[in-house]
Amino acid sequence: MNTVKKGLMTLLGITLIGTQLVACGSTSTSDSTKTADPAPSDTKETTTTDTAKKDEAKPVEITWWNFPSFQALDGEVGKYEKQIIEAFNKKYPEIKVNLEMITFEAGPEKLNVAIASNTAPDVIYDAPGRILDWAKKDLLAPLDDMVTDEVRKDIPEALWKQSMVGDKTYMYPINTAPFMMGVNKTVFEKIGALDLLPLDRPDRTWTFDEYKKALQAVKEKAPDIIPSGFFAKSQAGDQGTRAYIANLGNSPFLNDDYSKIAINTDKAGAALDWIRQGVKDKLVVSGSESLTGGDVNDLFLQGKLAITLNYSPVLRAQNATLKKAEFEDVLVPFPTIDGAKPKLEPYLGGMAIFNNGNDAKIAAAKKLIDFIANDPEWGRKDLIQTGGLSARSSITGLYNDPEYTYAEQAREFYTNPPTIVDGYAEVRTFWFPELQRVLLGKATGKEALDSFAQKADEAIAKAKADAGK
């Protein structure tokens, strides 16, 4: 199999890749979880009825790097992961798992350095934006041998497209959630404008005009609250701004065969122009060009923002203990011009294995992934701890919460996300600079989207050509 070392030269010049997840401000911790010295054995899969064989399992040590994919226990980042490892070692005492927690801010750069220096971890829990890029650079071990026919059929095609390169699977899908908007429901209740939200509709779809009326009501009746958020700094959270503009303009982000950018339409350009005007009209947060997704999320947590545009059930769960003001937050889809069904990008979390050239480590990493995703007891617990929905269609009803019930339904709005496009890692770097040009008055919305499309199309074509060599 190919090793990470073989991909060294392709990674030496790589720039920092922003997170596909929402921007978060978690604290980095590093830890190593050890097991008792096991008796020697072979590395093959063992069964509970084959005790002698299990006793002979050869010890193997793997390193697991993890973003804060699971909610912290007792305020301690990584505490839940330690519990996973402890339970895993009861089944596989011969596998020692070294855990290192990394942050969404510093983690991507740390991974790039580790890959370039041939010190990548063995296994990681991450999202398609980075994982598919690594797979295309031949840095990962394929996982097809651990995907059963049952699992293959139970996970929607849109999610498999985010987990595969060609006909090979490189990410094991675990949790998902639709990226939507978050609303401070309490604000609308206090100003008597709850009826302006689409919460009484089963699918909660709404029009651009209805959305603007809701923002105007906040501006007039709650002048100390910012009606809506927007941001254009860094790369994190780009899926929020991307889907926001695409839906406001009823425009797809990519064409049907994912070969070109399609969001540079007149309607999407007009939506971007409206956002710039919204800043002037105090319907959109001021200084958007210099705000990150994390900055806007903080405003929402402080109760200073009525509607945020980069939200999901996962972020809602993470925010539950981080709120600096008491309010109820609910989920709504992005509005569209005529109230048509929105197109929502799916968040997907899953695990991948770096091909570090050691078959025993790869086999051990697969056992850890299978335990986290499919163990009869821990599989369900792990899903709930992510705050997300199961990637598997048959696993529902994990939460007794109407917002999760709605999120389950909103999966019908899933569309294929840009993360599957060739050259995505470079494509996303062109997005926010163009948004900033509009917000600073240096370009119209259409001009900025045309400029983005030109640069992105060139990156896509180049990536396709390189892949064909």
From TrEMBL:
The keyword Membrane is assigned to this record: yes
InterPro entries named in the record: Bact_solute-bd_prot1 (IPR050490), SBP (IPR006059)
Keywords from the named record: Cell membrane, Lipoprotein, Membrane, Palmitate, Signal
Biased composition (Basic and acidic residues): 42-54
Region (Disordered): 27-54
Residues of the signal peptide: 1-23
One Pfam family, short name: SBP_bac_1
The protein, known as: Extracellular solute-binding protein
